[in-house]
Amino acid sequence: MEITFHGAAQTVTGSQHLLTINDHKILLDCGLYQGRRREAEYRNRHFLHKPTALDALVLSHAHIDHSGLIPALTRQGFRGPIYATHATRDLCDAMLRDSGHIQESDAEYINRRNARHGRHDEPLVEPLYTEQDAERALRQFVGRDYKQAFPVAPGVSATYYDAGHMLGSASVVLDIEERRNGGSPRRLRLAFSGDIGRMNLPILRDPTLLHDIDIAIMESTYGGRDHQPPEAAFAELTDVVVETVKRGGKLIIPSFAVGRTQEIVYELNRLIHSGAIPPLPVYVDSPLATDVSDVFREHAELYDEETRAFLQHNGSPLEFSSLTYTRSVEESKAINDQRGPLVVISASGMCETGRILHHLRNNITNPRNTILIVSWQAENTLGRRLADGAKEAKIFGDWYPVRAQVATINGYSGHAGHALLVRWAKALRPRVKKLFLVHGEPAALKALQLALHVEGLPDVYAPQLHETVEV
Q1: What's the CATH code of the domain at 181?
Q2: Which tens digit of pLDDT belongs to each residue from 32-47?
Q3: pTM, full prediction
Q4: How is 160-188 classified by DSSP, letter by letter?
């Protein structure tokens, strides 16, 4: 068996791991890479494996850095099944269509802008894939239940376990019977953690700890760092909203359209319901958000106990009287004519594409406003530069001074902190023989690697991008 780490190796984005087992090829995740523009453009357009040679894709969850290249994969010839939990399948139905639409819209906007400014030497920007490409890819999705094994390839079956990271997120356990020349088959269990969630997050159930695993591919996003508890994040959100309201400003929140947006909406609902903040206007400016809210309602069986209780006594956690979901471009533009105080939540969470760029462009120079970072920001993204204190921001090719307040809250991260990562890995003992650390920047990888060595885990390795390891 071979594992080739084609994404999320030495970085946190673009999850993509290729397994070769019994001459069959299984891809774990197929995520969009986000980072330096030229590098991202190249990596997202060029697979270093043949899509036509893949037998199956097993998807851990719907976040775009794990699912966002699926339409490009099928566009280039992959015709096999795409396995996902039912909620992940339903979320991808909305998210991949939306991603294709954004790809087309951004390309069209940049081409119009270049033409308007006489930049005729600039080549036309082509979308990575279209909404139609996404629709075709969705036909290959196959929904599966948690804790129910299903065949993936000859000698390989898979089982999903709730990872607690977002609605429908899963860790994957592969039960493998590997053929060996002239000998009896070798049986082993391989776990792919996906993104491990946290305990006591809003809406979501806690992540499942896995046992009886031989080999694990494990995320390490917050190696060496722990989060403040969710209650402290809730208090910080309250303070940021109150201070922005006092200034009469607008609170602009870049947020992943699925998962983080719903958590923040739920928290604002709690604040308004309790009287901690006034019922100020809140806009979720994403056509995706309304569709996603429908998916959340359809899968209320996945809520944690606290959210189910809120639903029973107060109605939907994602609806309140001063909340508006916007779909059309006209509705989005009209928000800019509204005076504060108000809240705008918009995607993408790393400020790389989508409507958030327009809201930043229109609000980043006003010191009364606040830009609130509530999501993990990959290196070399606009969101990361803002979180790191950049004084200027390049948006759609033009530079803007950052005069708005910039605040960050890391307590809403959907990723396990260092302590829970160590706990997750320790649960694999005594059977586990090798751990591959992925989905982490170098410092996080090293910190977690050291901690797991101290705990006596036998073989912990952080592969390089595109490295192939024989197991």
Answers
A1: 3.60.15.10
A2: 998 888 889 899 999 9
A3: 0.85
A4: EEE-SSSTT-EEEEEEEEE--TTSPPEEE
